[in-house]
Amino acid sequence: MLLVPCPNCGPRNAGDLSYNGESHARPDPKTCTPEEWRTYLYLRDNPSGWLVENWYCSSGCRKHFKIERHTLTGELRSAILPGSKPGLTKGETK
Amino acid sequence: MSNRLPAGEGEVLDRTQALSFTWNGKKLVGFEGDTIASAIMANGHHVFGRSMKYHRPRGGLTFDFWDPNTTVQVDNEPNVRASHRKLKAGMQVSAQNVWPSLKYDIKAANGLVGRFLTAGFYYKTFMKPAALWPKYEHILAKFAPGGEVDLDTPHGRYDKRYAHPDVVVAGGGPAGLSAAIAAAEAGSSVMLVEHEHHVGGHLLWGSEADRARATDLVAAAAAAGVEILTNSTVTGRYEDNWIAISQRNHPGVVERLIKARAKTLVVAAGTIERPYVFKGNDLPGVMTSGAVRRLINLYGVKPGTQAVVLSANESGDAAIDDLRRAGVSIARVVDALTGERIVAANGSKTRVKEVILDDGAKIKCDLLVTAVGWTTPTSLLNMAGDRPVYDANAARFFPAGAPDNVLATGGMVGDGSIEDLLEHGRATGELAAGRAVVVAHRLQAATARATAVVSPEPNYPADERTPLDRWPHPELFRASTHGIVDYSEDVSSKDLYSAAAEGFDSVELLKRFTTATMGPSQGKLETVNTVAVLAQARGESIADVGTTVWRPPYAPISLGALAGRINEPKRVSVIQPWHEANDATPILAGQWVRPDHYGDAAAEVRNTRENVGIIDVTPLGKLDLQGPDVSKLLSLLYTNKWMQLPIGGVRYGIMCAEDGVVLDDGVTARLGEDHYLMTTTSSGAGTIWNWIEMWLQTERPDWQVHVMPVTTGLTSINIAGPKSRELLSRLTEIDLDPKAFPYMNVRQGTIAGVDDCVTWRIGFTGELSYEIHVPSGHGLATWERLLAEGKDLGVKPFGLEAQRIMRLEKGHFIVGQDTDGLSKAPVTGLDPLLKLDKDDWAGLPEVKWTLESGDHPIIVACQPDDGSIVPEEAAQILRAGTSEIVGRITSSRMSPTLDRSICLAQVAKEFAAAGTSLEVLLVDGHRITATVMEHHAHFDPEGERLRG
Ligand SMILES: [Zn+2]
């Protein structure tokens, strides 16, 4: 089981958190096309490598945060709470 | 006939403790310390059962944890490893896979089996015709391996433990012990896990000096504070050294699953002796050199009277010495190092009788011992990402590299004297401890508050261990004849050849097609021989063929251990003791135990419609929302408008997920300027809390809203019926006059002497009703007051079933019952609540497009034309006279109020108009007709009762 570093609680078993999947920007619901909205809903890059994803510290501090995970090695880095600094965006690497 | 030797120095028996047991009904005696198999062998029996497919008699092969041939039934427990399980007095042990008896096995005798059971028989023999499958299943079940499961067996007690050791050492041989001691002495907390009953590994059946060394190591480990777990297996290594340990020796439990988060893992799993593949290699009396060494030295059992030994290494030579000491005559030593080979073994049905050598010589014997080399059980390293590489010179695989926090030592990584192995283990333990310190520091630094002073990270120790040698060993896998490769799955080298010829010539495919390596020993004995045979069949080298990837578990683990204690959480309201005392029939709704009814749900409905009823609705999800931006939040999550809700108002709303599917519904009241109380469905309480937090934290972090779940903080009671106003008025000063407190309004005040209660007028049941929310400490007292004060009004409690009937009479849909995971909001038919002119709400685009397309099913009320028939929920609605499904019944009940059956259904749009006749297919195959109603409400569609 992964050890997920919650920016608030520190490293915790992944089972203490909820996984909310690959991070995706939400399109403007007033102007978006069906393609854009359904890409937001359903399409994931699922890369072999670094991925920005959403976690929720559901059994801990109940904070939502983003983190980068290497899908091949399981390595995790750069956890941030939303709003604490500019959010990571998809595909961004360090 | 007894095969018990005189007491020996290193034996693990307590000969003062004789244990009686039965073997296939025959009474035998063993000693404390015996395994079941050693005790049976000591009594002169050497056939333990029959093989899975060919039903060939089988004797012990390795006499350790991995022995594939000594699986037995003990009392009502099937599939017990007799070469591992310790004998206990009174055990009733019997052979498996034998019918009618071990001696006369019909399936083997009639020769029926062989024809079926070629490689891949599962996939071929029973394929066609499909109509015969029930017959095939019946035949297969007869031949299925394994013992008898007694369904009345009581649940065993299983448990779990969480551990946080610095270092876990898998394997308690000399290298593992040495590593554990070194790590503990360097300051680490250490768990040492050994799957056998004693630590010490091969030292235990070695020389006097070896045994003395083992004793010293165990003492040193204890002194250093190492936690030693015997009869326990590290079954898996997962991310970040999450280590699963199956512990079978914990007092009071059958098996305990330890979940350990280790900072470093040391794998010291040793090596496992490989069987040799040749014609007759599964005859009873053919065994490995380790098997005879364990039988003689640990258990004082003489394994035969006249032995042939095929030896390619020091273990075979040591076995020869042991055999001589035990009084077994050595008929012939076949020295593999000088090129001597055996070709085949012949025997009677139950015992090897002669061995044929490649020079044609036939040697009489009743025991054939093979010492042909070693398999490296790299499973745990595989799980950490290691991909072992074959070394032809040493005739075995070696690890190629695992992550920094996983270190291997001992026989897995090379050969050497005991001193060499101990030194390598020591260096490994020290390295593991040093790295654990760094990992601990990193964890601490990651947990520390930003303001904390974090000391600089210690140096990360480099791996400066001197590698062990690799001793040369001849490559000995298969003789010139074919024999069994996988004993537990009954797969021969001939099967592997034919599978390869059929095109299953990649090792991963071959494994799955033939099931070789997929038995209870998880490939420990079979994998390398499988790879070697495939390499021969393909005419390539083992390195070219490669090996399969070992996955968890290292050894089988029981489902009981994975499940742990039966510990399903249950939630109850504070009124539950009253419900129980008053004969409520409980129903489990999600995690909540609730009263389904108090004897007669229909009577509860009638009383509520005529007088007044009260129901405990505490499981309703309740969220206290405060802050200046709550109205914006409600507008974002509900499909309808919330900006204008006045203080004191209550509104119903539907929530959608982002795909437009109905997520939840409920009412929310505005208690004050910035203060709201939201209710959710009972099952949605947790989901909606998370949902709100997600929006507030990620999409609208600038909004100021505090969310507090108060589901169990408030006891909720719905008072419904024409006399509900009269009843409530007796308990409160709140002005209940319909003009002062109209429908869909909320008031706060004192009820039954309890301050700060929230009361709202809503109408789920269709009656005039007040829902009161009182601090839960007063919940039971308030419930009892209502019953006492309303006696003359005819107040009675009603349960969930009566509420479900009444809501169906009123046509209110239930999320998850009348909607499902595909039901977008327009399915509810509540279009006026779907406000497309709002800027944004969750799921808006999908709902808009669905409404625009008009292409969606819709919820309608319908009534069977024969009102005595209640169609089953989920009954299909068909296009008349066809089998085309155009909808389904989502809710159905007999209505006590209307005295006829009533339903809600989801139907395709073209069937939604009032008056449409629907054809409903009942589960029994009959078709009935039902008519679509004008309103969702079957009863009081104008809502006069609830507004009164
Ligand atoms: Zn947290």
Provide an overview of this structure.
The complex is a heterodimer of chains A (94) and B (948). With 94 residues, chain A is mostly beta strands. Helix content of chain A is 10%, strand content 34%. Helix content of chain B is 25%, strand content 26%. Chain B is built from 25 helices and 48 strands. Chain B is an alpha+beta fold and 948 residues long. In chain B, the strands form 13 sheets. A six-stranded mixed β-sheet of chain B has the order 39-40-41-38-32-42. The termini of chain B are far apart. The relative contact order of chain B is 0.07. Chain B has five domains: 14-103 and 275-371, 2Fe-2S iron-sulphur cluster binding domain, sarcosine oxidase, alpha subunit, N-terminal domain (Ubiquitin-like (UB roll), Roll); 159-271 and 380-446, FAD/NAD(P)-binding domain (3-Layer(bba) Sandwich), CATH 3.50.50.60; 477-561, Arc Repressor Mutant, subunit A, CATH 1.10.10; 576-807, 2-Layer Sandwich (Gyrase A, domain 2), CATH 3.30.1360.120; 813-947, Probable tRNA modification gtpase trme, domain 1 (Gyrase A, domain 2).
Main traits of this protein?
heterodimer; A: 94 residues; mainly beta; Folate-binding fold; two-stranded antiparallel sheet; 6 strands; globular; B: 948 residues; alpha+beta; Ubiquitin-like (UB roll); FAD/NAD(P)-binding domain; Arc Repressor Mutant, subunit A; 5 domains; 6-stranded mixed β-sheet; 6-stranded antiparallel β-barrel; 25 helices; 48 strands; 25% helix; binds zinc ion
